[in-house]
Amino acid sequence: MADEWQEGPSPDTQPGRPSQDDLDKRIEEIRRKVIETTTEAQQRIKRVVDKAGTYWQQSNTPLQPRQPSNVEEERIRRLANNWSMGNWQLAKELGTYMDLVSWGEDEVWEINLQTRWETRSMETVSEPYTGRPVGQTKPLLPVWDYELSAVTGLKAPESRVRLAGQDEVFACSACNSTGRLLCATCTGRGWVICPDCKGRTRLRCSTCKGRGYIADWQDTKKKTFFQKRADTLTSSVGEKVSDIFEGIRQQGVPIGNPVDTDPANKGRTIPCPDCVNGEVECTCGTGKRVCDTCQGAKTELCPHCGGTGKTVRSREIARRFDLTLQTLIFGSGAIPEQRLANATGDLVYSAEMNETFHPDAAPEGVPMDVWRAAVQLAQTSSQADRSNDPREQTRASLQVLELTRVPYTKVDYRYSDKDYVFYIYDVEGKEKFYADRYPARWDRVEKLFRSITNDLMAPAPDNAQPAASGDQMRGYRVPVEKPPYSITEEEV
Fold it and tell me: Is 187 left (phi over 0), alpha (psi -120 to 50) or beta?
């Protein structure tokens, strides 16, 4: 029984565990796959390096310059070259190497309407009656029924116009037609509390600072002239600062006076000759002073009627002016309106709008559809109600219409076997350009990277022979991934 226990199964042959031979085979297979993968990556890199020069030559193949066949084509190519010179994202010398497919002339109209809005409101104004006769009273009309003075220009300041025949005399309600009111300063008493002593009839002595004693000057030593001058200057500055602290303390703020020093700390003292117990009599005598506003009369003239007991109530029309600008682009929608707003264009028509304008009578040089759109815009704008206050009424008092023609050229072309379109707009000498997409300046570099990436991702040839042993080829597997490289084209 003991012999059978000693001859039991070895750990290598236990069920569920691989044998040593299986482990060796797996390790050898992993080693072989690593060597094959490394060899494949090295072969791809070597193949790309060998072909990089060829790819670069192919990507840098020069384009053939094109010659213009007429004057208009020459102008378009020249402007395209100017466009490429001012845009670093665009292919160089685009006008020289592009193939023109077609081009066409067209125009866009910019309608600018400036409207001056006039807001009128009726206001009542009261003023003292001066005895001037008010005249015969007239009926009150709506604010827009009054013919007021004309205002020139689009920008005008706010103004007020007093209406004739609207003056009325009334008894002053503030003073009950007496012409006088209680004095607001003394509230009808005729006197105020003395601002110096606050009604106490006594003031603090400025000589001894309210102590009642001063330093004995006979006990002090003699000083030189310069020492006396310095002490005098120091004393005057100290007194001013001390007065400031004392004023703050009298206002109820519990603050000490660091400048004012007690004379008793310097030697012998004597009673103050200018006061009694540190106080002197105030000039008011009673703690009261006569009111400076009413001079003790207890009343003052009524400010509403000026002392006449009557007021004149009149009416005024307040006029306020605001300016608005409306812009309408009429024509092709290929070019964004934000670009057209910066264009100069040709000003074809500019005038003030009035009732004589008819939508079927277009001015010279203005297309009929453009003129109808401009008149419709002016009519719609003048009928809008911009007043938020029911007491105010707003109308369009002046409208200035400007019609600007913006010519543009649509150009269809080919570049590197791709079709593109761009637009040339604005007047001669101020040309501007717009395109949704265009040949980028780095297209050739993109072709080079694309070719290299394709070769790196290509599988290895079937006849590639891996290395026989690990001693002949060593290294790690290099994971090769395609980079997320793309060209994005932006607007010019």
Answer: left
